[in-house]
């Protein structure tokens, strides 16, 4: 899974499925994580046209099928497991190669589908968070390793 996490951060663009404007929700915290690291990110949510993080306003798309360059985008997912499976199918159809499923966002079916269908799929019970692989906890290390490999 460490290789998948590192591969995830070799993409040029990022998206967050389940992004939220509510600062108490993980969909917001995940978007803010990308923002604070100056990584190009697109929120995916059908509930609003944009999300404000710090001083940046991010226009949203309602589906991963609407991402501008899906083949160059890694997708973080923070949705309920039944929604995640639909998002995974849409991501595969759109040409996304790497996905990171946050703790609580997947079930066995979704995890197995992701591992089978994507170049890199991060999710499961490992990671440093104790609850599974989490961008907020494991992302900095994976991002650093990806950058080191590019040098």
| Residue runs with pLDDT of under 50 for 5 or more positions | none
Provide the gyration radius in Å. Answer: 14 Å
Strand order of the largest sheet: 2-1-5-6-7
| Span of the ends, CA to CA | 22 Å
Overall morphology: globular
Helix segment count? 5
The number of E-state strands comes to 7
* Overall helicity: 25-40%
Estimate the strand proportion.
Answer: 15-25%
Average pLDDT metric: 93
Structural class of the secondary elements?
Answer: alpha/beta
Reading the helices and strands in chain order gives HEHEEEEHEHEH
Largest sheet: 5 strands, parallel
What are the key terms here?
single chain; 151 residues; alpha/beta; two-stranded antiparallel ribbon; 5 helices; 19% strand; globular
Strand and helix map with partners:
Layout: H1 2-8, E1 13-17, H2 26-36, E2 41-44, E3 50-53, E4 56-59, E5 73-77, H3 81-94, E6 98-101, H4 108-117, E7 120-122, H5 135-150
Parallel strand pairs: 1-2, 1-5, 5-6, 6-7
Antiparallel strand pairs: 3-4
Helix pairs in contact: 1-5, 3-4
Protein model, in words:
It is a single chain. The chain has 151 residues and is of the alpha/beta class. Helices cover 38% and strands 19% of the residues. The chain has a 5-stranded parallel β-sheet, with helices on both faces. Strands 3-4 form a two-stranded antiparallel sheet. Strand 5, helix 3 and strand 6 form a beta-alpha-beta unit. The protein is globular. The two termini are 22 Å apart. The model has no long low-confidence stretch (mean pLDDT 93).
In short:
The chain has five helices and seven strands, in the order αβαββββαβαβα. The protein has 151 residues and is of the alpha/beta class.
């Amino acid at each position: 899974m460490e290789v998948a996490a590192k591969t995830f951060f070799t993409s040029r663009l990022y998206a967050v499925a389940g992004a939220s404007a509510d600062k108490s929700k993980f969909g917001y915290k995940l978007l803010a994580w990308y923002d604070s690291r100056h990584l190009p990110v697109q929120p995916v949510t059908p509930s609003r046209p944009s999300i404000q993080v710090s001083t940046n306003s991010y226009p949203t798309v309602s589906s991963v099928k609407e991402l501008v360059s899906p083949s160059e985008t890694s997708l973080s997912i923070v949705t309920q497991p039944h929604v995640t499976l639909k998002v995974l199918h849409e991501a595969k159809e759109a040409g996304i190669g790497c996905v990171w499923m946050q703790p609580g966002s997947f079930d066995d079916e979704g995890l197995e589908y992701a591992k089978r269908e994507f170049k890199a799929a991060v999710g499961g019970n490992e990671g440093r968070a104790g609850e599974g692989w989490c961008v907020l906890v494991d992302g900095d290390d994976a991002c650093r390793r990806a950058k080191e490999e590019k040098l």
